């Protein structure tokens, strides 16, 4: 995959207009990238770790529970890829629109991404819930695992919808430079709300995997609600001002450094 991407970039020459070659300048201003990269990384890792923890805990109950958790998780990951694609598109489109100073396009891209997410998540969630008794046969013929999977998929439709909305919202947050807020929402949702409730239902209430996914359902409902309220009240004018301020600051800082370099060379 890596070689294929590098090959495509090299053959299509898409780097010509954006990269002038190696220079000492590439070692400067890493702080801006790190401030964006670390919260973005946490937004993804916090969510992924939570699902993996479920598999680890299910192994303490029984092989059947572990198999059911693996089946539901695999199904969730497969269906998550499409909302995640909308999320990436929203991030790029919203970010480019704000960079170009076009608030109208940023708002439109946000609305379109949510509509596309709903058009996929609603029917796919209903379909999976309707086929809950047969989905497990794709992964295993074991009837015990199938019974647990069937019960767990009853809550899959609302979970999938809220998870998809949360994923798309996270893309909009990244596009507007609000990664830190997204990281905080994910941390609170998964580790303060979702996991404590899920683990309690899993072991104390003896609901097993079903209890864990109920906890995750509470988590994604909370996340989607917070994200949607925040985005609906988002100040696009203020976001544009922040982008312009950042751009001008970087521009004058770079110009000042270039001036000093020219003086030193003389």
UniProtKB/TrEMBL annotation:
Top-rank lineage group of the source organism: Eukaryota
Species the sequence originates in: Leptobrachium leishanense (Leishan spiny toad)
Organism ancestry: Eukaryota, Metazoa, Chordata, Craniata, Vertebrata
GO terms for MF: antiporter activity; xenobiotic transmembrane transporter activity
Pfam families per record: MatE
InterPro entries assigned: MATE_fam
A GO cellular component annotation in the UniProt record: membrane
Protein name: Uncharacterized protein
Family: Belongs to the multi antimicrobial extrusion (MATE) (TC 2.A.66.1) family.
Keywords per UniProt: Membrane, Transmembrane, Transmembrane helix
Keyword Transmembrane helix among UniProt keywords: yes
Annotated TM spans: 49-68, 80-100, 112-131, 183-204, 210-230
């Amino acid at each position: 995959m890596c070689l294929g991407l590098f090959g495509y970039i090299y053959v299509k020459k898409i780097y010509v207009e954006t990269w002038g070659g190696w220079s000492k300048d590439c070692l400067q201003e890493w702080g801006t990238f790190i401030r964006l990269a670390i919260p973005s990384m946490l937004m993804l890792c916090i969510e992924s770790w939570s699902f993996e923890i479920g598999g680890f805990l299910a192994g303490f109950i029984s092989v059947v529970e572990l198999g059911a958790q693996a089946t539901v998780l695999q199904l969730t990951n497969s269906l998550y890829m499409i909302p995640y694609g909308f999320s990436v598109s929203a991030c790029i489109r919203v970010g480019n629109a704000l960079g170009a100073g076009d608030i109208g396009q940023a708002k439109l891209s946000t609305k379109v991404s949510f509509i596309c997410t709903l058009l996929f998540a609603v029917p796919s969630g209903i379909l999976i819930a309707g086929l809950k008794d047969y989905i497990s046969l794709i992964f295993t013929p074991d009837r015990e695992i199938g019974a647990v999977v069937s019960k767990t998929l009853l809550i899959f439709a609302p979970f999938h919808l809220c998870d998809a909305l949360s994923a798309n919202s996270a893309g909009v947050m990244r596009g507007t430079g609000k990664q830190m807020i997204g990281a905080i929402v994910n941390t609170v949702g998964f580790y303060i709300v979702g996991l404590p409730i899920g683990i309690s239902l899993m072991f104390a209430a003896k609901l097993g995997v079903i209890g864990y996914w109920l906890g995750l359902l509470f988590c994604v409902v909370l996340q989607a609600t917070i994200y949607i309220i925040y985005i609906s009240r988002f100040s696009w004018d203020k976001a544009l001002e922040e982008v312009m301020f950042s751009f001008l600051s970087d521009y004058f800082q770079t110009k000042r450094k270039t001036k000093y370099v020219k003086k030193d060379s003389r």
